[in-house]
Amino acid sequence: MDFGFTTAAYVVAAVLFILSLGGLSGQESAKRAIWYGIAGMTLAVLATLFGPGVGLWLLSLILIAGGGVIGVIVAKRVQMTEMPQLVAAMHSLVGLAAVFVGYNAHFEIGRVAQAFAEAGTLFPRPAVEAEAAAVAESFRGFAAIVAHKTQAEINVLRLELFLGVFIGAITFTGSVVAYGKLAGKVTSAATKLPGGHLLNAAAAIGSALCLVWFFGSGGFFPLFLMTLLSLFIGYHLIMGIGGADMPVVVSMLNSYSGWAAAAIGFSLSNDLLIVVGALVGSSGAILSYIMCKAMNRNFVSVILGGFGGSQGPAQEMEGEMVATDADAVASALDEADSVIIVPGYGMAVAQAQNAVSELTRKLRGKGKEVRFAIHPVAGRLPGHMNVLLAEAKVPYDIVLEMEEINDDFPDTDVVIIIGSNDIVNPAAQDDPNSPIAGMPVLEVWKAKDVFVCKRGQGTGYSGIENPLFFKDNTRMLYGDAKASIEGLLSRISS
């Protein structure tokens, strides 16, 4: 097959990826959008495999088969509660791939340059010297592309691979740390080494100096040194971010992985990789910006890892947590006319979405108004709660975003909170020293009665105390969320 067919296939694949991204913005179209993405990726892989200059068929087929088997195993084993960790792990692989491709490009440039030197001609002037043209035609694949470039183009290629390795290395270690925080294997608290942001700045300046060195010498050592520095930047950036802000971290790393892929696409002269990388990078950046607005964070501060830490001593908690039981909650629901359910990560952990869906169906069957309030960063991944509720067949029209429902809490009889903490924390409005100060939250405390389904009295993943639990109109329903909701189902009158 020729370049024309490959380019045409890449254009069709890019269109499918754009349709996929557009469809994922709505719950009704999300399933169709996923199939667009699958079709686009299948076409892209086939077009690459059958494109010009491709060899090593046996190795390619073995790697594709191996990756497919691993993908099936992961898909069967990973629960919805573990999706944020899986996304972070996937980002780390994209970053690592960018590093390896960048190193390979560097070695290929060196190999072609050595061949020209041995032929006694200048590298790479095939249009001027017959000897150079003969050397250029002896290469295949990426080396052939390199051999036909001018010196100015080679310099641009070196810049592209340098940036690809830099962004990829940051993405790799940052994603590994994010995975550790999300999986509970690394402390969720914001942790910085002595020197804080000065260390990050020094590493960034060192990387810039390595770029100058790399252009001057073309050697391997400045590229390797820059890789070590960027690996440290990725580690230290994400370690300095607290657990409350991890949803933003996931989308930010998604953006980083996209830009790394785009940079490597330029190095490989692969138009589709450039387009897809730009789509992922820009969409991740836009999502990060939207989430920063939802959390009242500064976007630049997010990119630099300067958020998530405590600003001072938190306010003292007044009152006490008052426990209740399923009978009292069921009685309140029987008497209520309007109910708002606020799902959080606790619902995902307990896999309580189906029980919540059945509770919703039963309450609506009795003529009660039941709606769901979704905060932009509920769970540990954007859209996490929407996916769980859609999986449990909760009607889309009663699942509302924060700005659509926040003004309705004063007129609501009962609010049921299932495993949420920070997104319903009044300290965001009342305590200027809180790590989440200024973050828009669901104002659930304005409802008549608030019931919180919670496993215990701990502060939760982010480690932030919640004054809501101590308010006079709040009662705590302790226990596993699924068991608690199923207990309510058996007590609500038909």
From TrEMBL:
EC number(s) per entry: 7.1.1.1
Gene Ontology molecular function terms on file: NADP binding; proton-translocating NAD(P)+ transhydrogenase activity
Catalytic activity: NAD(+) + NADPH + H(+)(in) = NADH + NADP(+) + H(+)(out)
InterPro entries for this protein: DHS-like_NAD/FAD-binding_dom, NADH_DH_b, PNTB-like
GO annotation, cellular component aspect: plasma membrane
Keyword Cell membrane: yes
All copies of domain NADP transhydrogenase beta-like, residue ranges: 7-489
Entry's localization field: Cell inner membrane
Keywords: Cell inner membrane, Cell membrane, Membrane, NAD, NADP, Translocase, Transmembrane, Transmembrane helix
Bilayer-spanning residue ranges: 6-26, 33-50, 56-74, 161-183, 195-215, 221-241, 272-292
Highest rank taxon of the organism: Bacteria
SUPFAM superfamilies: DHS-like NAD/FAD-binding domain (SSF52467)
Pfam family for this entry, one: PNTB
Principal subcellular localization: membrane
Membrane topology label: Multi-pass membrane protein
Keyword Membrane: yes
PANTHER family according to UniProt: NAD(P) TRANSHYDROGENASE SUBUNIT BETA
Subunit comment: Complex of an alpha and a beta chain; in Rhodospirillum, the alpha chain seems to be made of two subunits.
Functional summary from the UniProt entry: The transhydrogenation between NADH and NADP is coupled to respiration and ATP hydrolysis and functions as a proton pump across the membrane.
Family of this protein: Belongs to the PNT beta subunit family.
Protein name: NAD(P) transhydrogenase subunit beta
Lineage per the UniProt record: Bacteria, Pseudomonadati, Pseudomonadota, Alphaproteobacteria, Rhodobacterales
